Amino acid sequence: MHEVIASPFLDDYVVVRPGDTRAVRIGPRRYRELLENTPDAGCPAWLVDAVRRRWDLDLAGQPLADSVLVRDQSRGYGRASYEINLGCDYDCEHCYLGEKKFAGLDLSDKRRLLHILRDAGVLWLQITGGEPLIDPHFTEVYQLAHDLGMIVEILSNGSRLANPTILNLLTALRPYRISLSVYGATAETYERLTRRRGSFRRFERGLQAAVAADLPVDLSLIITSHNAHEADSMRAWAERLGLPSREYTHMSPTINGEPEPLGTQSIAHVKPRPRFTGCNAGHTFLHVDPHGLASICKVARDQRIDLLAEGTDGLARLGAIADALMLRTGGCSGCQLAGQCSVCRPLAKLYQDAKAPLDRYCQHAERRTDP
Length: 371
Description:
Structural class: alpha/beta
CATH superfamily of the largest domain: Aldolase class I
CATH topology of the largest domain: TIM Barrel
Strand content: 15-25%
Low-confidence stretches: 367-371
Number of domains: 3
Oligomer: single chain
Strand order of the largest sheet: 10-9-8-7-6-5-11-12-13
Distance between the termini: 65 Å
């Protein structure tokens, strides 16, 4: 099993370690040296030194093939998110996915998809859902992503995290992060939001198991109208556990532009968004849905590319799709505040389709309420 991975990453070359967010830049010359070495060659002295200094790991005297996975050249997509399945064991009203149908690829096609993502250059992979841990093929997908040299993050509600098979796998092959959504600090509040009896107990058990296993957990505190009264308690919970946390206060329409999640917005807890200055969606990052259809991101799912049918060649069109979607003006034509907008054009379109109040996404709401 490889200890470190040497890989192209965008316009650079790096060495990374599974379960760790740190990297070592090595440049094209040293990357080619690793790529062209024979399998029985030893690890070069510069690599032994760099890995020891970065991770306190000793590769001295080890054959290169036994300790270093050297990935081939790529299409330049360094990151991706993969919805392994939209099915979920919760029924949260605020969810941006809307109706969550349990459907997706069979295991054979999931494996093909991961190889395509590897060939596209994906080094950092986010596995999400729905709830990814309830997918019947999660362990096989996670194992293969690791074996292909991907650094994996998991987005989960934590309800299955105490499952011994899953916990043992993640302990043996550590992800670089497990982001767990927190929906309340008490069973009553948590289960009112998830609309599932027993969900709080399952979450607590999963969180405790992950902490006991010293897995790299951070908490996403989801603050809605249903649980806003427990926001301080949720923050305190994260602090007691010594876990990093982030707060999500903006409720979005569904990916189909349906307005239902907007009704769960806690207006008092909305935090100002920073100015949108562009992103790399569609150019160096992509999103893949449960059926293997690639889009520029989770929000903008227009003009998707069937990766199983087209492979990495289809991704040649994704950059142009991204540029067109970012320029689409819709109801914002002629806006003089466009350069100061806090949301991207695809997200603004979802708000517009949902007929959302301007104060959820547009600066004009502030201008109209000025005295």
